[in-house]
Amino acid sequence: MSKKVKKVVLAYSGGLDTSIILKWLQTTYGAEVVTFTADLGQGEELEPARKKAQLLGIKDENIFIEDLREEFVRDYVFPMFRANAVYEGQYLLGTSIARPLIAKKQIEIAERVGADAVAHGATGKGNDQVRFELGYYALKPDITIIAPWREWDLRSREQLIAFAEQHQIPIAKDKRGEAPFSVDANLLHASSEGKVLEDPAREVPDYVYSRTIDPQAAPDQPTYINIDFEQGDAVAIDGKKMSPATLLAKLNELGRANGIGRLDLVENRFVGMKSRGMYETPGGTILLVAHRGIEQITLDRGAAHLKDELMPKYAELIYNGFWFSPEREMLQAAIDHSQQYVTGQVRLKLYKGNVILVGRDSKYSLYDQDLVTFEEGAVAYDHRDAAGFIKLNALRLRTLGQRRKKLGL
User: Fold this and answer.
1) Could you point out which of 62, 162, 194, 314 has its C-alpha 20 to 30 Å from the C-alpha of 345?
2) Is the pLDDT of residue 179 over 80?
3) pTM as predicted
4) What pLDDT is attached to residue 16?
């Protein structure tokens, strides 16, 4: 504890760990605690978090619970999907993309209530501490940040339980034992890591999965769906217009029923270590295939290829916590500009864990059937033009070949 703190805004889930942090902040810093609980579509009832905070002595005016589902999908998830962002070729960034919004709301509440500090429950080994704190500093450079897991001496589950009992913090029966794995969830995904998942050679146990059924148990008949896009964002399923959060929730439902979106990944954390995680992103997996499908016919080759070159950098910035950085915003501007004509409809077949693109159509399509047909017809393409095109592109290769021949290489 290096600075006197009077009031702190805590990112509070209502679970055991953040309830212990709440009490620890009161006892260690002597600070007034304000709790902030975000509904990002994690699928949990949030009113118990209010009751838990009240039980721990938090005044009603210092308890903030906000439904952020629409803002989350509209302003964070959809912009990210316009970029087709995946980290290390596979991860759809479900945890990463939620952190800047939570950080933003914490800072807004801190300014509203006159708090001089914010706190989070991320551990000292993970990426989330970086993501939260980069967000805090970007939005309020002079804010004091408290990261209890880096400060306190509670190093085991037993010590946490003992602290909770000492301070009369209610402990659910299923929380007294060692948790089999840790879970993070929101409307985009659910992730599980730690404990039973720490050995990357072992298959993920069935009981870890929560958002998807086993693909082998999925229906034997495929499910066909149509997704409409407007300027890069999905706006309707099977002709029915939906809000961003409602649409993603519907895709999650469809993905769950067809066993879509499971990922077993060993990733490279920003802090330097490798970590094995199990991710379930049913709706996001469908959305990514659909978005790339509509881009296939509406994006020019140069723009499409440049986007694919920029995407790994963009994804890495989000993964590492640089959502509020100028370079992410620069890339976002380029990506959003590319989506001007990414409008139309995609048809997909969902079947036993697979998302299969079967059709796409757009009034802005660049696909010209007269140009690509093998049949003869009135087309704006002369086959003879290809000879000069090939010779020009082969010039340097021929020059290299002549050098090899001359030198006998």
Assistant:
1) 314
2) no
3) 0.94
4) 87
